[in-house]
Give the backbone structure.
Amino acid sequence: MRRSTTFAFSLALTAAIAALLSGCMKPEDNRQAGVDEFPNSVYAQVNGFLADSKQSQNIASVPGLSDSLLKQQSFNVTVAPKGAALKAAPLAKTGATQGLALATASDTGCSKTQTLSTTVILPGKKIENSLTVCDDAKLSDTIHGNETIIHGHVVTTFDNGRVETTDISDADGDGILNPVRGKASKARMEITVLDKGVLETTVLVVGPGPDNNFDTPWDNLIYTAGWSKTVGKDTLGYAKYSDADSDGVLIDNGKPSLIDLEFYQKGPTGDHPDAVWSRANLRLLTQPGSDAKQARRVRFTLETGDGRQTTAQVLSSRDSVDFHMQDTVHAVFLTRATAASDSLDSLRVELTMNLGKDFDDKTDDNVFAMDIRVANKSGDQRASHFSFQSDQPLPSGKDPQAGKVSLESIFADGTTQTVDGILTVETLDVTFKDRTGKRLHVVWDRQGKGISLVRLN
């Protein structure tokens, strides 16, 4: 968010207008003033203010996290054909445990187990696999794939010191990973990555769905999901998912699912290199067979090193926290300065816009209007209010083309200064009213070149 740009522009524009009114321009000498007499920087500053319409680009999901966490690598826990080596390796498949035979209620007991292990050396890494199975008649018979699986574990150690671990265990209480007919079978997957002292941990509890088959991902279930990033006891980040539609399942691959996500990150982000911390609270709707992200609630908060706290939130047209993607919404950015030495008190940017069909896709977003309010703790200029009403939908990230602009500034002595006008594809045509009530009409072309200047009183 360009907080400093918006604030600096408001002050700079006031200074430029004050200079204009104090004699830098002498319209009484020539109603059609020369180009050199125009404060061309004012046009650039107005453009900078209008550029805050691009704040719509900052309304986005947590990059990559929500998708990658819910589509973690799976773990193949099937044993190889009888007499062959153990086969246990990570698989990049959506879902959870792959290749498990369907068990019966009588298979849930296991008095004796056997752990099978292999080690694979590959360029740059070593993979250690272990699989605990029930040591019964099924383990020694000639039927492949009917074994009762108890536990699986893989450790991949890289030459550079990075260690990746995948562990899968029973989560429904029957002691085995195999799905059981007529039962809501569950498996727990814990995936950790330790690299240069930073530990990332992902935990998922998954189920095979109504068909009791993990190999058919279209009806598989994710009951819970979570992620954390730590260094020792210091938490660098976390993601907490919860069931928002109260159906007992976080993600049902067979039907739409509503989930809540709370994400926290300590330190800088890609969009905010000055962030001390940031947090996102999202309500997302997943649709089977669709990669488009549907959001129902959106709120981001962060604090920067200068002590400013910013909240970005999407609200419905009636200012409710719940909204629908097809509706016109309000994207509100509010910055408050906590440091006593900060001259800024608050900055509020509100965009009236449409979010398109995919929350993560900014190319189908449109902005219709913007409203910016600045309040200062100190200085001559204590408040400013800027607005822009676009004549046509403005694609997210694009420069405004035409519409109505206005700016009102309030000073410490109670006087005001206003700017009102029209932006077209060819000109910026505005009327200034200074703190004494004097008015000027000024026109620039879209390259910032002065066209005309007229004193109105």
Notes: The first helix runs from residue 3 to 24.
